[in-house]
Amino acid sequence: MDSALVVAALSTACAVWLWTGPTTATTRLAKLTSGHHKPQWRSLRRLFTRQSPARRAQSWRLASIELCQALSAELSAGRTPGEALTRAIAAVDLPDPDALRPVVAAARDGGDVSAALTASAPPQGGEGLRQLAACWDVSVTVGAGLAALVERVAGTLRAAQAHRQDVAAQLAGPRTTARMLAALPALGLLMAAALNMHPMTFLLGSLPGFACLATGITLDACGLWWTNRMAARAQG
Predict the structure, then answer these.
(1) Each residue's pLDDT tens digit, 15-33
(2) Does the residue 63 lie in any domain?
(3) I need a surface site. Which of 85, 162, 175, 203 has the fewest CB within 10 A?
(4) Phi, psi of 103 (to 5 degrees)
(5) Whole domain around residue 81: which residue ranges?
(6) DSSP character for 126?
(7) 192-210 pLDDT, tens digit each
């Protein structure tokens, strides 16, 4: 009975840890309220912090908005486009600062900034960088005001981000329900163990029991994966 309780409790704890971890918004709020950190601590934190592809894409989208806002402010202050972009990149806390080093080099040396931005943009979450590259290309080719173009891109990115947050809020209920349903089998094991029914003896001590356990875990994991996949597709 004790071993069954321990196994069921560990299963429940793992499910809760995997599916109720801190969101990107919570992480960014903690950064804002915790003050400035030394660069070496930021590097260590990025080294040991692993993000899912969806959260990494979200981090890049937020960083792109901040980059456009910072670039617009630098341009409004009268700085040249290359200097403004360099200062803006240095001021933004990027998910991967090394990814934009070619952009900084192109801005300082008078290279093709638009191509560098396009090449540095990640496949997921790099929409803002690609739009910024298009703005830079238009500004260089046609001579349009870069500050106005960047501000318009920033407004578009903010509107898209607000829409994604609204969709995420609407999907919070279904996601919570799916997680609760996924945890019910573990709760059932706890209840059965409390009634001295010895469920783990059957599940781990016989071939039919082990087959039932493997099938249940597989179906539970597939249900969680499918729910998360549908929610991710709805968020775009």
Answers:
(1) 544 455 444 444 444 444 4
(2) yes
(3) 162
(4) -70, -45
(5) 53-162
(6) -
(7) 888 888 888 888 888 888 8
